Structures are given as structure tokens and as C-alpha cells.
Amino acid sequence: PAGAGWFCPGLVGPPQGGCMSAPLLQVTGLSRAFGGVQAVDGVGFSLAEGEMLALIGPNGAGKSTTFNMVGGQLRPDAGDVRLAGESLVGLPPRTIWRRGVGRTFQIAETFRSLTVVENVQMALLSADRRILHWWRPAAAHRRADALALLERVGMHAQADRPCSALAYGDVKRVELAMALAHGPRLLLMDEPTAGMAPAERLALMALTRQIARERRMGVLFTEHSMDVVFGQADRVLVLVRGRLLAEGTPEQIQADARVQEAYLGAGFDVEATA
Ligand code: ADP
Ligand code: MG
Asked: How far, in Å, from the CA of 139 to the mean position of ligand 2?
């Protein structure tokens, strides 16, 4: 089980050596207002290498705003975001991405006619800093590496199909492979399973968890299905009206009376799962 200030996945007994060094991600006093709305209000947490950290809360709680401040899409009014000890505040999103903070994006409409492997090759091209020319197909670029990423997410057999022909859950696996293309140390996943069936959600996040462990990649994710949150997260942060209401292991959060009250009282957007 994880302690408050440290987390060592797979480690039995107390943490030692490197595990006590600076956390992968350290967020302190993060705040952001929009007009009169304090969307995020003094949020602080840390995330270790290989850790799955869920950020949950009602709609409008400030989850996406928090993600966007970590990824650099939004500048915080106050607070700090440190990756392995170095502040990311004020850096452009592309620089933050270069430093190893990835996020899953939906495959753009224009790329859906490309094959699965071509989409991953495009992501590899982008990671390799090549200029993307629409007239120069990605077909020649690092195909073997792209196939290896697809193999990891279970999409190897569909590599040469156009993305437009895939089932929705399979598109999500390809998007995960694309997010892995630049080797992120931290992966931000804001509602990665939106629109998916319950069993598929669990499968995608269980796969993400395995990959996080293998690569020692930290994952910060939002998810509405409590089965997925409590089954796949190592720790859970509960955000309500911009503030952290609770933080703990899935067992601690499930047993927390304040969280149960928030679920009932604050109109938690919980989706029923089988
Ligand atoms: P969540 O992702 O938890 O649903 P958000 O971070 O999207 O919550 O939103 C938190 C609050 O900030 C909400 O009240 C929302 O309306 C407001 N908000 C978010 N983004 C903006 C924006 N760009 N402009 C104005 N208000 C915003
Ligand atoms: Mg959101």
C-alpha cells in the first residue's frame, strides 16, 4: 500500500534508495479562476513513477482545468507543477511534451483514412521532430517500431486497416499506442474511456496499468466508472468545487464518509457498470 508522500509500485516493504528521491510529478498550491469561478483552488498532490493516480469528482469540479495546467495548455494563477523536480509552469505545451508529459488525443478526422500503423508512424515522426508533409507519407518511417507499439496494445493484427474501419474501443488502443510513441514519463488521460462500454473501459485501463508498470510511467487519469477507478488506480484524489476533498488508496476512498456524502450530495457523475 502507498503512503502519503511516496509510492513504490511492486515494492514489498519500506521504500529505499531511489524511490525516496523527488517524485515524478509534484503539484503544489495549484489555482486557476475563470472570471468569478475558482475552478481549481490550492490543489497539491504527487505522483510516482509507475503509479496510476485517479482524479475523480463531479462535473465542473476542476479536473480538466488541473490536467490543462499540468500539460501547459492553461497557465495557473498560482502554484507549481514540477516534473522530476523541475518546474513546468510557463513553458509552452510542446516543451512540456518534450520533457516527457504526454496525453492521449483523439485521432483527427483527417487521419482516420490512414491505416492504424500509419497513424502510429505519424506519432513517431512527430516525436522525432520531423516536419510533417502531407505529400510525404509516413509509410517508410519506423514501421517496425510502430508495429511493436501496436503489438503492446493488442492492435498488431489490425495494423493495415484504416482507422475509420475500427471499432471504437480499438481506436482508443491505437490512441494509447500513439501517446506512447514519444516515450512519456507521465501520461495525462482526461476521460480516456468516454463513450466506451464498461468491459472495454476496464480492459483499456488495465492495459494502461500494465504499461505504466513496465515503463515506470506515471499516469494521471479521470474516469467516471468507479469499477475502473477502484480496480485500476493505486491512489485516488477526490476533487470537489476545485478543492481536494480526499486522497488515499481505493480502499480508503471507498470507506471515506465525506466522499460517500459527496457522491450522494454533489451529484457525482457515476455511471452504472455491470
Ligand atoms: P471537470 O473537468 O471536473 O468537469 P472543469 O475543469 O472543466 O471541470 O471546469 C471547472 C470549472 O471551471 C467549471 O465551473 C467550468 O465551467 C469552469 N471552466 C472551465 N474551463 C473554463 C473556461 N475556459 N472558461 C470559463 N470557465 C471555465
Ligand atoms: Mg473535464
From this structure: 35
For β-strands 78-83 and 86-87, DSSP reports them as: antiparallel
Digit-coded pLDDT (tens) for 233-257: 999 999 999 999 999 999 999 999 9
- The full length of the chain comes to 274
Per DSSP, helices labelled H in 72-220 are 93-98, 116-127, 143-152, 168-180, 198-215
Q: Which residues line ligand 1 (CB under 6 A)?
A: 34, 37, 39, 57, 59-65
For the stretch 94-127, pLDDT in tens is 999 999 999 988 877 768 889 999 999 989 988 8
Query: What are the backbone angles phi and psi of residue 195, rounded to the nearest 5°?
Result: 85, 0
Question: Could you give phi then psi for residue 194, rounded to 5 degrees?
Answer: -55, 130
Whether the CB-CB separation of 236 and 247 falls below 8 Å is answered with: yes
Q: What angle do CA 26, 28, 32 make, to 5 degrees?
A: 120
Q: Where are the beta strands (DSSP E) in the chain?
A: 25-34, 37-47, 52-56, 78-83, 86-87, 101-103, 186-189, 218-221, 235-240, 243-248
Smallest-distance ligand from the CA of 66: 1
